[in-house]
Amino acid sequence: MKTHAPRKRFGQHFLTDDAIIDGIVREIAPRPSDAMVEIGPGLAALTQPLVERLGRLTVVELDRDLAARLRSHPQLQVVESDVLRVDFGALADVAGQPLRVVGNLPYNISTPILFHLLGFAERIVDQHFMLQKEVIDRMVAAPATSDYGRLSVMLQWRYAMENVLFVPPESFDPPPRVDSAVVRMVPRAAPAAVDPKQLERIVQLAFSQRRKLLRHTLGRWLDEQGAGGSFDVQRRAEEVPVAEYVALAQAVPARAAD
């Protein structure tokens, strides 16, 4: 079978380091009873050790040539699609149980993928993703730090997350120009009841000019909605904990998100 040249338009960097692969598999800890979906299996470096432990595995692959290769594997169900179009709820229905989702996400669309999966969190057991390290730093950042932002708030509302493994550039072919890492994301069993669109609108406004006090951005919008109450807008966006953004989203009338 001919070799596959990495395609820049798909953000392809293939994992080749056996020690890192073993480390990721240990963190995932796959079991035969799991219903697992791998995003971006590529040349199956992670796919093969996973399926050996699982017995079966669903993979989502956009690259037509790679999807054709993967179909020759008898233990794989191949979904040839843009992951942003995949209905993970339907995959959970087919499996008859919640999913475990893993993958080496294309760095150029990692944030859209994370937000897409946010809508299926109630059907997911956990997620283990390899991402650009600086993205994971933002995901797990605490308030009052430079990495804390929109991604931190939106994901921490719904998941407990931790950076579990560092992955250097030389672990890939071709090597990316950035450090990578693996994040574990576990959906919260009882997340605060909030409209995600409302929360996203508020967080987007808050961080639109993160160096300014919130009274210049979010505060003006809250005044227009006749909402906000005791919410302190004499702070910068990065100083507000996740719980306060969530509480504000619950308090502002739903029509304000339209």
Automatic annotation (TrEMBL):
It holds the Pfam family RrnaAD. It is found in: Cytoplasm. Residues 20-189 form the Ribosomal RNA adenine methylase transferase N-terminal domain. The keyword Phosphoprotein does not apply. It catalyses: adenosine(1518)/adenosine(1519) in 16S rRNA + 4 S-adenosyl-L-methionine = N(6)-dimethyladenosine(1518)/N(6)-dimethyladenosine(1519) in 16S rRNA + 4 S-adenosyl-L-homocysteine + 4 H(+). Its EC number is 2.1.1.182. The keyword Cell membrane does not apply. GO terms for molecular function: 16S rRNA (adenine(1518)-N(6)/adenine(1519)-N(6))-dimethyltransferase activity; RNA binding. NCBIfam families: ksgA. Belongs to the class I-like SAM-binding methyltransferase superfamily. rRNA adenine N(6)-methyltransferase family. RsmA subfamily. Specifically dimethylates two adjacent adenosines (A1518 and A1519) in the loop of a conserved hairpin near the 3'-end of 16S rRNA in the 30S particle. May play a critical role in biogenesis of 30S subunits. This is Ribosomal RNA small subunit methyltransferase A. It comes from Pseudacidovorax intermedius.
